[in-house]
Design goal:
The chain has 96 residues and is α+β, with helices and mostly antiparallel strands. It has two helices and four strands. Helix 1 (52-66) packs across helix 2 (73-95). The chain is globular, with a radius of gyration of 14 Å.
């Protein structure tokens, strides 16, 4: 499962270059490709990680090594936890 991110117009130009992507049961480092569009595409840059903590560390290292923008560790972990809550709620909806 891969989802394109919708970015509000007010922050499009400030969208980070490096994010995390969840798919195939793993967390991936993903680099934004294309311009600051309402819906942008990202490309996986690293092998997948079973742990979101490892993926966050890899994303920070990748961004630093390539001079790319990236959210803070805390912001990425907050996003991961929000995603996990969404997955859990979605799963509960299917179980009902």
């Amino acid at each position: 499962m891969q989802t394109a991110l919708q970015t509000p117009a007010s922050i499009r130009s400030h969208a980070p270059d490096v994010l995390l992507e969840f798919g195939e049961g793993q967390w991936f480092v993903a680099v934004r490709i294309g311009g600051p569009q309402p819906c942008f595409t990202q490309a996986r840059q690293e092998p997948g990680f079973g742990s979101h903590e490892q993926a966050v560390t890899a994303a920070l290292a990748h961004a630093q090594a390539h001079g790319l923008s990236v959210p803070s560790r805390e912001e990425m972990i907050d996003d991961v936890l929000e995603t996990l809550r969404w997955f859990e709620a979605d799963k509960m909806g299917f179980a009902a």
